[in-house]
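Practice set, problem 2.
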Amino acid sequence: MTEAEQWEQAARDMKPFLNSTSSDEWKRRFAAYYSRRSRRDRTREQVSTDLGRILHPVGTSFSMVAPRGYVPQGAAVFRARPIDNPEEISVRKDVGAPPRDKAKAGRLNSALEPLLYTAVGSPGTALCEIRIEPGQMFAMARFSMREPLFAAAIGQTEELPGLTVREKKNYNLVMQFLEDIFNEQARRERPNDYIAPEVVAKNYFDYPETYSEGWMYRSVVSLGKGGVNLALRPEVGERVLELHEVQIGVCTGISGDGLSLGFQTLDFLAAVPGQDELLSVPDGVRGPFIPPSRWSELFTTPDASD
C-alpha cells in the first residue's frame, strides 16, 4: 500500500469516530477532563482510563494515524547532557542513551526505560532541553544521520482526503487536545508529571517501525519555541546516528532577558571511526562544529519582521 493509499484508508477508518459527536461536545469533554483532573499523582492506568472515557465513547473506536516527520540523511542532530566534571565523557556511550538502571522518567519514557533525546539541527534547543543554568557543565554531542528516518510527528495534523468540513474540524480538535496533554509542563523533581505525556505518546503515537522509528515534537522550552526534538529508542539511535564531536563546556551566565547564553569551552573531543574512545583535539585542528562565536545566535529569538 502506497502512502497516499494509507492516508485514504486512515481517513475512511476515522470517519465513524470523527462523526460520533459534535465539535461542541468534543470541547465539553476536553474541558471536563481538565476540570476533573486532580493535581495529585495518578497512575498510568488512571490516565489511560480518563483519556479512554473522553476519546472512546460507547460504540466508537479511536483509529488515527499521525503524520510523519522526516529527518534526511546527513542532517545534524545534537544531544546535550549535564555533567559534574569533564572526566564523565571519555567514550561513545557516554553521550548515548543512559543505562537502563540510570534512566529517569521523561516525556516519552518511564523510569528504567532508556530513550535517546536529541534536537534536530540546533545545539541551542538541546541545551534548553536540559534546563542549563549558570555554573553548570555540559557535554554537547554532534551527530549526523547515516540514513533518512521517519518519526511520528506529535502535534502535527494532516490534510486527509475525503473528510467533510465537520470531520476535519473534529480531527484538528482531537489532535490539539492530545498535543496539549503531551506538552504539559513537567518538573524533573516530580517524575509523575511525565505520566500523562508518556501515555499520550505510547497509546496514540507509537507505531510499527515500518511506519515510524521515533517521535518528533516541538520543544516547549527552546527560545522562540521553534526547536524540534527527536526521541529514539537506543537501538535505533545506534543504527542511524554517526557521532562526530563532543564539546565540553560550562555555562557562564544567562542574560537578563533569557535570550542569550554565555559559556566557556573546557575541551573538545573527536570521535574516531572504529574507535570507542573519544580523543581530545587542539583548537587549531577541530572539526566542523558550531563555532563559539555563533552560539549566541542560537539563543536569540528571531525578529518578527525577519
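Problem 2, part (b): a different protein.
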Amino acid sequence: MTFPFHLLAPPDPAALPLPHPARPAEGVTLLRGAVYALPEGSRPLAADLWLPEDATGPVPVVVFVHGGGWRAGLRDDLGPRFRDWTPGPFARLARAGFAVVCPDYRLSGEAPHPAQQGDLAAVLAWLRARAGDLGLDPARTVLWGESAGGHLAALTALTQPPGTVAGCVTWYAPTDLPGLAEDRPEGTYDAHDPSSYEALLLGGPPADRPGAARDASPVSHAGPDAPPFLLLHGTDDSLVPARQSVRLAEALRAAGHHPDLRLVTGGDHLWVGLSDADVKDCYARVLTFARRCTGA
C-alpha cells in the first residue's frame, strides 16, 4: 500500500473551523486566533476578529496592522495610550458597525520583506473567502496601521489590485526608507547600519540594498489606482520624522489624489505628548474616515 502523502498537506485555512466566540463587550463578538495562513517553514498566522452583534447585513471591515519596528508587537495592541480604554478601541469600532480584523504577520526575525506584505495580502484573500461565514463585505475594507504597521498597511493598500482596499489610515508611519537618512537629524541615523530596524526588515542596510529599500517604500507605489488615504503624524515625532508622512502625501498628490494629511502639533511617536482629548480625536478621525470610505 502506498502512503497517502496528500494527507500531509496543510489544511486550507479557508476551510478550518472558526474559533469559539467570546463576548468581550456588550454588542460585540470576538473570535480570537482564527488561522488565516500557513506559510511553509513558519508558524501559523492568526487573526482576531471583533464583530458587531445583530448586524442586519454584511458589514464593512477595518484591518488593523500592529507596529513594533517590524520586529515585535502584539496583533491587538494599538499602543499604550489605548490599553486602559473600556471598552477597548476595537470593541468601539465593532459597536459602530465595523468588523475589526487584527492579524499577525511574520516579523523581520522570521522573514525579510516582502513576506510581511504577502501576509497582509493573504489575510485580505482569507477575508474574501470567509466573508459569507463571517457576515463581511470585503469590498468595503479599510487598512489601518500604526508605525511599522502603518508602513505595511500603506504598502499593502498601494500594491493590491484596484478596488481591493477602500481606504488606508497610517499613524506616524515610515513611508520612504531611502529618505530616512535625510529626514532624521544629522548624526542620528546611519543608512549603513546592519542593526537598524529597516536593515533587519530588508535583509541588509538600506544603503546597501537600494532596490529592496525602494520596493519596501509606499512612496514607490503611489499610482493612479491608490485608494483614499488618511495620514496622521505628530510634529515632534523623535523616532519616525513627520516628513515621512509628508513624502507619501506628496507622492499621492503627484499621482492625482487628495490624501488627508494631519500633522498633529506636539505629538511624538505613540502619541506621547498629546492630551487624552487629542488622542481621542486621532481615534475619532479614523472612525470618520472609515465611515466615509465605506458608506457605513
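Answer key, part (b): The chain has a mean pLDDT of 97. Residues 113 and 216 are 7 Å apart (CA to CA).
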